[in-house]
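Narrative progress, year one. The postdoctoral researcher (J.K.) led the effort to move from monomer predictions toward full complexes, under supervision of the PI. The following entry was the first complex the group processed end to end, covering 562 residues in total.
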Amino acid sequence: MILDGKAVAKQNEQTLKIKVKHLLDLYGRVPCLKVILVGDSPASMAYVTSKKKACHRVGMNAEVIQLPVETTEQTLIDLIQEMNDEKEIDGILIQLPLPKHMNENKVLNTVSPNKDVDGLHTLNAGKLFTKQDGIIPATPLGIIMLLKAYNIDLFGKHAVIMGRSNLVGLPIGKLLLDLNATVTYVHRETVDPKKYTKDADLLVVAIGKANHVDQSFVKKGVCVIDVGINRVDGSLVGDVNFEEVSQVASYITPVPGGVGPMTISALLHNVIKQFEVKYDR
Amino acid sequence: MILDGKAVAKQNEQTLKIKVKHLLDLYGRVPCLKVILVGDSPASMAYVTSKKKACHRVGMNAEVIQLPVETTEQTLIDLIQEMNDEKEIDGILIQLPLPKHMNENKVLNTVSPNKDVDGLHTLNAGKLFTKQDGIIPATPLGIIMLLKAYNIDLFGKHAVIMGRSNLVGLPIGKLLLDLNATVTYVHRETVDPKKYTKDADLLVVAIGKANHVDQSFVKKGVCVIDVGINRVDGSLVGDVNFEEVSQVASYITPVPGGVGPMTISALLHNVIKQFEVKYDR
């Protein structure tokens, strides 16, 4: 069975549209997201455009600010600080990766934790790992939303995460642990990764290697979440060999149309959450 | 082979003693820890006394402030804020557990992240989980120090953590992942925990159940870290049945004399780190 992220995201947007209208009635304005893109990588430009469009579809404000690749770190930090002070801005998203001459952690921590919509401020990361309510990174949050939409119960199941990045692997493992899954992190230094992945009830793959995970990695009936987005011969493919693995999996996300749209859906959720928290304070 | 935490901690103290003397020469004062204990639980009183004594052994200042169990949260918060402002205090430790009428997260986050020596401020938790330099909780840090003292290499090994608390299980797993171990979290909702623990090269047990882990949980040659401290018939025992498991383990920590002294050693390390960072700022 295909985990249709595109369809679930579309459905979510109907709910969010109503919510935004409700917020407009309540507070006289709609949530506003600013996306900062440094440089002109085509992939990044495509991502920020789709984020902006999604905001517009649900009735929120969104603007992309594109800075030249040679922008200094200080200029970027000054801009972020101005935006932190600007009352009508609810979310600030720094599109990653940043150019090499910038300190990513320093820039991300300049964004006010109250306007961070990517969950990448250290304080929000700390909240996630100490089970306090905060902003959860969009991709892991989107995955949880997708699993919930299909009523997939993780209680007592073995979840194996391939990848241990701050953005995806590490936080999705923590969220699955909170849902009472038994969680194993597998990574590039793991000896015999298949020993673990073959036992997985849920396999989350976030390794950035096109079509890497084939049938030999999984057991029959596994649920597979493919976070990879790789460009091969002009088309998008995931980290999982969909054709092979979909034959034995009980559930699987396609690429595109799986985790991608859910990530955007989770981002919209985070912007609205920051807006609501602001008015609750 | 016994992982002799008591001996390693004693050795560490010799080094720290020299370091403290050096800091006194450099800055004209020694690091100072304040320990706040609310209530009079005998176990907590024993812990804070041993922490204070350890500070004194290496030449640092340390004081225990004991408050009555009925102290209000606000009184405690006011006291912590005063201590945050006091220049001659380098570390503030809130002995856990706090009385039920207090919000633990709120109290712990009142301690300045620059005086937090337990790594329990949300910002320090966030730093640990995003691989930034910060303060690491004393028990997991002590475990890593012990493993390093015995040159136990975790690279590519399977580390299984029993327990997923913010204080021990979760952070020790993250530290082992950073050392390139493959990490599995097992907990009370895990179906068939032995399936995982029997495969472990390193087994960390932090579940608070006296003598729970027997030979049937482990494979021959396993390295076992027992974090448990349970009082049974007036004596201290760990979560691991030491007599049984020590017969098949390659390394094992005793209780007492294993993780306990290393936790205190790591605390001293954290106080000195906060002191040094202050003068580096």
